[in-house]
């Protein structure tokens, strides 16, 4: 029990639709639309492995409701961006490109409880100029790197530098 408490205490600072306040982002450019067309479609069936935060180091299999998840925008509470650990969250956010072509700034705003994959989701405030967005990410997904951008953004390929 002490190990779980220590782990949760260590993870809480890093531990949650794409809701938006401020201006609506500009539509994606033709080049961005073409790039988006080349991205893989969202997962629509099957089970996945997630890290079990109640049993550190263990994984468990979940069978998400893909139809309900994919009905929500990527980055929403109902369809959080899947990443691996805080480093994966930061890597994903660093790959995003604002509508003006610049890299957004971001900060974690907290954990938002258990999400659709039965793991904790984190919320991030993402800023592009004067526009603010709230994005939700789930950091308990081993062997998964999201290739799709959240609505209103484009994304660099994984491994690309800014």
Question: What this model shows, in words?
Answer:
This protein is an alpha+beta fold and 162 residues long. The chain has helices at 2-11, 30-37, 66-70, 85-95, and strands at 19-21, 48-51, 59-62, 81-82, 96-97, 105-114, 120-128, 131-138, 154-155. The chain is built from four helices and nine strands. The strands form three sheets. Strands 1, 4, 6, 7 and 8 form a five-stranded mixed β-sheet that branches. Strands 2-3 form a two-stranded antiparallel ribbon. A hairpin with a 5-residue loop joins strand 6 and strand 7. The longest helix is centred in the middle third of the chain and has 11 residues, at 85-95. The radius of gyration is 16 Å and the shape is globular.
Arithmetic mean of pLDDT:
81
Largest sheet: 5 strands, mixed
Strand content: 25-35%
List unreliable stretches of 5+ residues.
1-33
Class derived from helix and strand content: alpha+beta
Order of helices and strands: HEHEEHEHEEEEE
Helicity, as a percent range: 10-25%
Rg, Å, rounded:
16 Å
* Number of distinct beta strands: 9
Anisotropy-based shape: globular
Tell me the number of helical segments per DSSP (H or I, 4 or more residues long): 4
Q: Could you tell me how far the N terminus lies from the C terminus, measured between alpha carbons in angstroms? A: 42 Å
Layout of helices and strands, plus pairs?
Blueprint (H helix, E strand, L loop, with lengths): L1 H10 L7 E3 L8 H8 L10 E4 L7 E4 L3 H5 L10 E2 L2 H11 E2 L7 E10 L5 E9 L2 E8 L15 E2 L7
Parallel strand pairs: 4-8
Antiparallel strand pairs: 1-8, 2-3, 5-9, 6-7, 7-8
